[in-house]
# Entry
Amino acid sequence: MNRPPRPTHFPILEGKRRIKLIIAYDGASFYGWQIQHNGPSIQECIEKALKKILKENVKVHGSGRTDSKVHALGQVAHFDTFNKSIPPSSFTVAINHFLTHEIRIRESSEVDESFHARFSSVSREYRYLVKDIDSFTPFDKGRVGRVTHLPPLELVNEYAAVLVGTHDFSTFRASKDKTVSGIRNLYESYFTLEKHLFSSPTLMYVVRANAFMMHQVRSMVGTMLQLGEKGGSAEDMKHILESKDRLKALITAPPEGLYLYRIEYDE
# Structure
């Protein structure tokens, strides 16, 4: 097992119901998903909005933590409430009314007590956007990573293919990461060149796995981009992965280009 078995039942206090949210946010102005003492967080803003609506303290549980300046199109969260009068779908408009334009509730629905935004998930998909310095525009600032030159698409896809499968990804683990095991299952890992994004060529990395460690995606992206700049081989990427040595990883890509794209659940 890659992590402890997930609980299968998350009891709700008698008289409460559970609401699921799908959330998008521009993370540039926030200190990540989780409540922080040194600045605003996404979780804090949503909990404050819910308190104004429900007149009760509500704990919002996210599917995972995103770092400072990381964005999301498909973050998932849930909360429990005693309120029975608000239709589930109406929470979308109600919460958005008390949020700034950087955070939007895309969808709200009622779920049963077996659902948990974090522990019920079966996969997470992230996407990373990067452009070369000559193609960078003022509208990309805070939303797209930047490199001097984009590496050849075919070459970075050779690196990305090395990561697919079940591996120990300790090489790409942040020094502060506290998870017991570095083993993860990567289902998809590939680059595409999107010529319609932000009006100039944008390299997009897509990765989907059962779970990720702290900074893992950014470390993998930064390593592949720098290795591509050096003209390294897929065998070089394999050696970096199999070393399980954090010192063998190359640069960590900045958070601005990273998006939590989708969370999948076992229906």
